[in-house]
Design goal:
Elements (H helix, E strand, L loop, with lengths): L14 H11 L16 E10 L2 E10 L5 E10 L9 H13 L8 E4 L12 H9 L3 E5 L17 E6 L2 E7 L8 E7 L3 H10 L8 H10 L5
Parallel strand pairs: 1-4, 4-5
Antiparallel strand pairs: 1-2, 2-3, 5-8, 6-7, 7-8
Helix pairs in contact: 2-3
Length: 224
């Protein structure tokens, strides 16, 4: 059955209003719900490309743990919200919801190419869209928005907690030996330990986990 999208708010707001809304929504995020890997059958990757004020979202659903593709959906729309650091979800959220409405399968968890709790107001795109979905979501970012971590060992699977003002907000995770880490954080309805384990289980020979890597390719703009 298709995913259920819970309407939370309108997207036609100013950056100032968006920041105030983030502060209202952040306390609703659930960050300690167990997400055992044995309960997962389908995992989806989510990514958005923006070019020339045009956005394309892609969601690729993979069977878990086999990681073969079950479904790919995309959606396109004009990009109307300005680029403001910390407000990415207001720029990309509408087109992601368009793509989500086209899914036939029902993923057990979503991996976002972006932040979850690794955010100055603790509500990155994986948290924000997670509240619309009400299901487990995880942020898998390629770069660090906030926080610090200790040096990581070089081998695949090594990780260190990511701290911001003494609070653990995510993990720096080495997904390939001698390759720079990615940054994993809870989006919604997951615990960090389980989020980290799922991301690592979805990673093969590349730095990025297969769901978000596939979504990145499917969302690419500028192709014939």
């Amino acid at each position: 059955m298709p995913v259920t999208i819970h309407p939370l708010h309108d997207w036609d707001i100013t950056p100032g209003e968006a920041i105030r809304l983030q502060r209202t929504l952040a306390p609703q995020v659930i960050t300690d719900q167990p997400l055992p890997l044995e309960s997962i059958r389908l995992v989806a990757g989510v990514d958005v490309s923006v070019k020339d004020n045009h956005s394309r979202a892609a969601i690729v659903v993979l069977r878990f743990p086999a990681l073969d593709v079950v479904e790919t959906v995309t959606a396109d729309r004009p990009t109307t919200f300005p680029y403001v650091p910390g407000l990415l979800s207001f720029r990309e959220g509408p087109v992601i919801l368009d793509a989500l409405s086209r899914l036939i399968s029902t993923p057990d968890a979503f991996l976002f190419d972006g932040q979850g709790l690794i955010h100055p107001r603790r509500i990155g795109i994986a948290c924000h869209i997670g509240l619309f979905l009400g299901v487990p979501t995880i942020g898998c970012a390629k770069s660090l928005l906030v926080g610090q971590h200790a040096a990581l060992p070089a081998e695949k699977g090594a990780w260190m907690p990511l701290l911001d003002h003494g609070e653990v907000i995510g993990a720096a995770l080495r997904t390939r030996t001698n390759v720079k880490p990615i940054f994993v954080s809870v989006g919604h309805r997951a615990a960090l330990e389980d989020a980290r384990a799922l991301v690592l289980a979805c990673t093969t020979r590349y730095r990025l986990p297969e769901p978000t890597r596939a979504a990145h390719k499917a969302a690419a703009l500028g192709r014939a």
